[in-house]
Structure formats: C-alpha cells, structure tokens
Amino acid sequence: MPNIQLYLASGSPRRKELLAQIGVLFERISAPIDETPLINESAKDYVLRLAELKAEAGWQVMLEQGLAPLPVLAADTTVVLDGQILGKPIDVMDATAMLEQLSGRSHEVFTSLGLRTATGIEVLLSVSTVTFMALSPAQIAAYVTSGEPMDKAGSYGIQGTAGLFISNLQGSYSGVMGLPLHDTATLLARHGLGLLAALS
Ligand SMILES: Cc1cn([C@H]2C[C@H](O)[C@@H](COP(=O)(O)OP(=O)(O)OP(=O)(O)O)O2)c(=O)[nH]c1=O
Fold it and tell me: Is residue 72 part of a domain?
C-alpha cells in the first residue's frame, strides 16, 4: 500500500468519500469530542472551535497510539439560520421542526477545517448560502421518514433526496456536504501537500 499523507479525524462517511475524491491518501482516526455549543457562542466561533478541537483530539490519538507522525485534518459542518446553530436532530420531531424552519427561505452552511501539524494548528471557514423551496408538511414528513436527516446538520443532506429541495446554492457544494474540496486543497498546499501542483 502506498504511503499515507495524513490522518482524517472524522467518523463522517461523507468526509471520507470527499477526501478520497481528490486523491489524498489517508487513514481515519477516531477521536470523539463534546460538540455542545458554549453559552452565547456565535455560530462562527462554534464551528471554528470544533474543527480545532477535532484536529487536536486526532493529533493526541495519533501520539497515544504511536502512529507515524503526519498532519491531522478535521472538519465541522453547522447549518445557521438567523445566527442560530442547527446541529444534528435529536429525534424525528426535531428534524421536522428544523425542516419547517428551513422551508421557503435561505440559510447558511458553515464548514470549518482544522489541520494540526507538528508546527501548530490552522483553521479556516467555508460559508455557503442554500435556498430551500417551500416544503409541504407531506414532503417534510416523507423526507423525515426516509431517515436521511438523522445524522446530518440541519436535518438534510444536499447529496441525497434533499437535493430536490434546493433551488439555489452560493458557495461550495462539497462544503455543504461536509468537506470543501477547494479550501481543503488550499490548506494542504500551505503545508506541503500540493494536490493542485501534482496536476500541473
Ligand atoms: C448540511 C449537510 C450536512 N451533512 C453532514 C456532514 C456532516 O457529516 C454532518 C454534520 O456533523 P459534523 O459534526 O460536522 O460531522 P460528523 O459528526 O458527521 O463527523 P465527524 O465530527 O466525526 O467529522 O452533516 C451532509 O452530509 N449533507 C448536508 O447537506
């Protein structure tokens, strides 16, 4: 097996898929953290703090397990409506309420990236604006029943059936899905991993 280039501190199947899509060779590290927002924490502060926390936790696991020292990448995705953080739904009622809130209007999706290396940590933020069509109660109920919302910030996945609901997107499709690919390449390039350079 060819040498890996970094560790991905994430349990998200979407992040694994997206990172593989751009040709990065990596292994996943499991480093769960407490994702509870602090009191009065802004959405931007929250999402940046979580990327940092996840990358740092991954770095500690790498050290504890005696793994070969390599950069650790992590990310966090949060849906933001009127400055309010919409995380993953806790149950079907919660998912229904979030989709009712998102229906017929625009919201922001913040995805942060954190890269921990031997020299420290760098974080960056990708912001996208997503517009939902007006959803009927029956459409919301059918989507919630499908189970798709349950492990996703804001209770939807742009890459699944909810793609039908999105009338406009400004920003990064991969960012909304959990890992902004262009920004990831930019961040990795600053730390000697030139994905774009390899194509030129
Ligand atoms: C808005 C949106 C979110 N999501 C997903 C991406 C993330 O996996 C999830 C947000 O939760 P996160 O806490 O960002 O990530 P995670 O808990 O799934 O994985 P980890 O912390 O281990 O990296 O929502 C989609 O898949 N599609 C979407 O359109």
Answer: yes
pLDDT surpasses 60 at 1? no
Atom of ligand 1 nearest to the CA of 111: 14
In terms of residue numbers, what domain contains 103?
Answer: 6-199
Reduced 3-state DSSP string for 93-120: HHHHHHHHHHCCCEEEEEEEEEEEECCE
**Protein residue with least CA distance to atom 9, ligand 1:** 152
* Centroid of ligand 1 to alpha carbon of 134 (angstroms): 24
Structure-model confidence comparison of residues 97 and 199, the more confident one: 97
Q: Rounded to 5 degrees, what angle do the CA atoms 177, 114, 43 make?
A: 65
- This complex has an ipTM of 0.97
Give me ligand 1 centre to Cα 169, in Å.
18
Alpha carbon nearest to ligand 1 atom 20, residue? 10
**Is 104 among the domain residues?**
yes
Read off the CATH number of the domain in which 158 is found.
3.90.950.10
Is 1 domain-assigned?
no
Structure tokens at 61: 């696991």
- CB of 158 within 6 A of ligand 1: the answer is yes
- Rounded to whole angstroms, the Cα distance separating 69 from 158 reads 34
- Answer whether residue 192 is part of any domain: yes
pTM of the entire predicted model? 0.96
Q: What is the tens place of the pLDDT at every residue in 112-155? A: 999 999 999 999 999 999 999 999 999 999 999 999 999 999 99
